[in-house]
Write a structure and sequence with these properties.
The protein has strands at 11-13, 70-74, 78-83, 88-93, 109-115, 118-124, 142-151, 154-162, 171-178. By secondary structure, it is mostly beta strands. Strand 2 (70-74) and strand 3 (78-83) form a beta hairpin. The chain is globular and about 50 Å long.
Length: 203
Amino acid sequence: TAAVKHPDLSGVYNFGGGGAPARGGAAPAGPELKPGKESYRVNRGPQDSGGTSDCMPLAGPAAYGVPYQFQIIQNDNYVVIFHEYPGTFRIVPINGVHPVDPDPTWLGDSVGKWDGDTLVVDAIGFNTRTELNGFKHSENLHIIERFRRPTPEALEWEATLEDPEVFVRPWTVKRTFALRPDLKKIDEFVCENNRDYSVFFGK
């Protein structure tokens, strides 16, 4: 029998994409903390330079929200996702298996499988140093992403996030990213994170 031909997701895509409304036109529901988990809320003081100023890796929706392109390269066995900012990548084996007890990392451990024309990426094994919509999370964070290319010019992305230790229920984020046919690759990004940000606050 002939091998199944899957859509090619390869390309450079614009950042942003916006959030898709939930059914009925309502705004999509975000994370809701469980009672007693208020310590997981991120509270930034007046001298906090923001969640991306340290150039550390970004997980989940935050990785697609910064004003830099990202690139996907695909073959039969792997899909690789490169983020220009902050110069991170994820190697996603197709039909792979998670380690039994993965060491926690910034971007987690990802495996993928095809569901028709949709690439489904399952990610676990995150450390606790990234943020989700203004909240911290535990090592139980679990993200399921769905990548689909409805037209040659666009990539649809949907992520369902859950952390039963911290949040009341899972929530879903949806975005559509435009292909950048004028770009063959993303650029190098180097973060010289050694400046004293206090000068920006008059100190």
